[in-house]
Design brief:
Helix content is 19%, strand content 28%. By secondary structure, it is an alpha+beta fold. It has one domain: VC0467-like (3-Layer(aba) Sandwich), CATH 3.40.1740. The radius of gyration is 17 Å and the shape is globular.
Length: 206
């Protein structure tokens, strides 16, 4: 669950305008892996972009299953997890490094030299320490665990947006951490005044 900090570190000078925003896939999205996806953008700069898909559930695995698999807790403790651990969703965060876990969470939890603040009280941590804290009931109030992430080379995301592959909207806690994963796509569209029926191959940039 380790990742390169340099990929996400940013200063006010190089901060991309989509940091902390939500990307919403349009019908013109060419990559089927991102069809109807909503992505929280963790970093966007001239060096590329990185984000977490927040509306694709990981198949056949729960947070407690993952804690056991990673030896964070013994199997016998899986049924005795604290309430805040029970609501943590395991998502398919994207097609890159799918064996690694990335925890998006509220800013009430911070690990020095491990947690990266992103925007508006949202942070990213990718170490086992945060999983251990959540398992003890000492972690953040809101969190999701993503397996993998979405990544773009320099200029790639901008090109996809110019070709109407993505719309974007502001982020909020419900879009990121909401447990009704299947509703996030329509909720994101609603934030920019769009209904699914309005979308077509001619969709423009919102």
């Amino acid at each position: 669950m380790r990742m390169t900090r340099k990929a996400l570190e940013k200063t006010p000078r190089d901060r991309g305008y989509l940091d902390g925003q939500m990307l919403i896939a349009t019908p013109t999205m060419q990559d089927e892996r991102f069809a109807h996806s909503v992505i929280y953008v963790c970093a966007h700069s001239s060096e590329g972009a990185m984000g977490i898909v927040v509306n694709q559930a990981a198949a056949h695995i729960t947070f407690s299953d993952l804690l056991v698999k990673l030896d964070v807790i013994p199997a016998a403790d899986a049924i005795r997890l604290p309430a805040r651990a029970d609501v943590v969703k395991v998502l398919k965060g994207g097609p890159v490094e799918t064996e690694r876990g990335f925890v998006l969470h509220s800013a009430d939890f911070f690990i020095e030299n491990s947690t990266l603040p992103i925007d508006e009280g949202i942070c990213l941590t990718a170490t086992l320490d945060i999983l251990k804290a959540i398992a003890r009931g000492k972690g953040p109030a809101s969190a999701l665990l993503a397996l993998g992430y979405a990544g773009w080379a320099p200029g790639q995301l901008e090109n996809e947006m110019q070709h109407n592959g993505w719309l974007h909207c502001t982020a909020d806690a419900e879009l990121i951490f909401g447990t009704e994963i299947e509703l996030k796509y329509n909720r994101a569209l609603k934030k920019i005044g769009v209904t699914p029926g309005m979308l077509s191959s001619e969709v423009g940039h919102a």
